[in-house]
Amino acid sequence: MKKTVGAFVAGAVMSIAATSAFAEGHGEITVGYFLEWPMPMMIAKNSGAYDDALGMKVNWVSFETGTAMSAAMASGDVQLSVSQGVPPFVVAASGGQDIQVLDVAVSYSDNDNCVVASGLEIDKDSAGELAGKKVAVPLGTAAHYGFLRQMDHFGIDVSTLSVVDMAPPEGAAALGQGAVDFACGYGGGLGRMKEFGNVLLTGDEKEALGILVFDVTSGPAGYVAENGETVAKFLKVTADANAQWAADPSDAHMAVIAQEAGMDIEAARSAIATMKFPTIEEQLSETWLGGNAATFMKGVADVFVEAGSIDAALDDYSGAVNTGPLAAAKDM
Prior knowledge:
This protein is of the alpha/beta class and 332 residues long. The protein is 49% helix and 17% strand. The chain is built from 16 helices and ten strands. It is globular.
């Protein structure tokens, strides 16, 4: 994990350093997000609603993994990250990074999965045959956590597998070329993986096993403490965009989301259909940030420790959840 995150620092962070250095002196903010990850907030991104609400320019920087987002926030180059996976957040927090969960960006059990090459003809009833196979997994991400949990469910010793660290787009290409036997990922990468194989478990089947998949908006604790009102306004715009989409999932809005996500409309429509966007009230409830989220993060950390992906877990992750700005956004 240390090697992986270090590599991301060298690449992603250096590429946006100039933008962020400018932002610091001009009352701007730099926010990380994902391409090929269609979300209602992209309507607000497109319209300039974030800039208007915050009263400052929002610089958007795209990433391919949540681990890269952590590295950029650690260096101070990114102030907020939208839709960071819980596992990469947990990896960062467990390693001592002072980072906080600010909202539940999206829940997506069907949009994060592992796909087995069609030629192997392996499904959930014959998953044991995956032992000894080669798999592409973006390490330290939600897909990595889901992979570990699924392998545990099927009784497959991960040490018998050849695990290659690949972002979802590369994993999909490797699966298509026959360079790996199965691949795990999310978003557009997962969509392309499915062209070459089949999933082992559906989203509902994973949820029944307690394998939750959700992303958060996150930020460095220091930045949030000093800019609470700005963060609250940001979260409010996101919540309003979610409400707008829930009330009017029109073709016009879908076109804007697809454009901002860098996807064709049908691919974006297919992806967003598997996503759920909880309201602020739901996010603040016990189901999410009011209790279960911290418990779930502890579970993720323990799985990563057992797998040897991180050195140690925190005793409790409730300190990494800050509902203050979201509660303030509710009253705006």
